[in-house]
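Structure (tokenized):
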């Protein structure tokens, strides 16, 4: 009889241990699934923020490129007083500015996929190019 009770107690303890450990595993699985869902949600939000940042930046740069095109069109229509060499230099500079503006546009439109590090580098580079072009416009405007 004692032997039967001992066997029953051992079986009951084993069953309880097994059931308790299974429940913990289920809880762990549910927690892991929740964490995965949260991570996916965070990733989607980060991608949306990144896309919004890219689109906002692209819009601003495109507006600047369009403004530059208008400046170039005005420069082409402007009549230059002076010698033939002055006119040639003026037209060459206008063409150079137009080419740089188109390079800026092409650079903006050609690159569409970035990691966080390359995006910041690209954005900085494009801002520098945009500012350099703006400075050239201003310097050219002051000369004439």
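Design, position by position:
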């Amino acid at each position: 009889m004692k032997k039967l009770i001992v066997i029953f107690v051992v079986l009951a303890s084993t069953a309880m241990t097994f059931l308790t450990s299974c429940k913990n595993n289920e809880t762990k699985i549910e927690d892991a699934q929740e964490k995965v869902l949260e991570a996916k949600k965070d990733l989607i939000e980060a991608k949306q923020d990144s896309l919004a940042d890219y689109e906002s930046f692209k819009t601003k740069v495109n507006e600047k490129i369009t403004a530059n095109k208008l400046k170039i069109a005005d420069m082409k229509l402007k009549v230059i007083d002076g010698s033939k060499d002055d006119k040639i230099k003026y037209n060459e500079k206008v063409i150079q500015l137009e080419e740089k503006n188109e390079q800026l546009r092409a650079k903006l439109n050609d690159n569409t996929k970035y990691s966080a590090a390359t995006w910041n580098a690209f954005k900085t580079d494009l801002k520098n190019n945009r500012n350099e072009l703006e400075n050239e416009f201003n310097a050219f405007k002051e000369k004439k």
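Reviewer-requested clarification: The chain has a mean pLDDT of 79. Residues 35 and 65 are 44 Å apart (CA to CA).
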